[in-house]
Amino acid sequence: MTTTKTTASFLATIAAGALMLGASQAAAHAKLVSANPAPNATVAAPQAISLKFSERLEPKFSGFEIATTAGAAVPVKTAVAKGGQVIDGALAAPLPPGGYKVTWHAVTADAHRMNGAYSFTVR
Ligand SMILES: [Cu+2]
């Protein structure tokens, strides 16, 4: 009877795991995991801007804008990279020294829209 008992507890463990997985998927909102340049970093003029998220994004509805601290929009062409968790931004021209704000919006497969912003400085 040891085998039956072991099987039962094994199944209970799987059931608990499935419940936890379901809960975490229900709460699966895109969070910014990392970015390049990083939030609050002071960097040499970047070639490109890249934001990594915790979930796969809907490419049509995910992207970011860049503005100077004074509020002037900076031309940037964004696209969700292969794999779906990274938004890459190509700059039309190198960023002059100064402060910049990245404002992102990201929609996940469950259609939840998340927004955020962070700043970095070009030396
Ligand atoms: Cu969600």
Overall description:
This protein has one helix at residues 2-26; strands spanning 32-36, 42-43, 48-53, 63-68, 73-74, 76-80, 86-91, 98-107, 113-122. 20% of the residues lie in helices and 42% in strands. The mean pLDDT is 87. By secondary structure, the chain is an alpha+beta fold. The longest helix is centred in the first third of the chain and has 25 residues, at 2-26. It folds into 2 domains: 1-28; 31-122, Immunoglobulin-like, CATH 2.60.40.1220. β6 (76-80) and β7 (86-91) form a beta hairpin. It is elongated, with a radius of gyration of 20 Å. Strands 2-9-8-4-5 form a 5-stranded mixed beta sheet, with no helix packed on it. The protein contains 1 helix and 9 strands; from the N terminus they run αβββββββββ.
Structural topology:
Blueprint lengths: L1 H25 L5 E5 L5 E2 L4 E6 L9 E6 L4 E2 L1 E5 L5 E6 L6 E10 L5 E10 L1
Parallel strand pairs: 2-9
Antiparallel strand pairs: 1-3, 3-7, 4-5, 4-8, 6-7, 8-9
How many domain regions? 2
Give the terminus-to-terminus CA distance: 71 Å
Shape: elongated
Report helical residue fraction. Answer: 10-25%
**Number of E-state strands:** 9
The description of the largest β-sheet is: 5 strands, mixed
Which radius of gyration do the C-alpha atoms yield?
20 Å
Strand order of the largest sheet: 2-9-8-4-5
Task: Describe the structure concisely.
The chain is α+β, with helices and mostly antiparallel strands and 123 residues long.
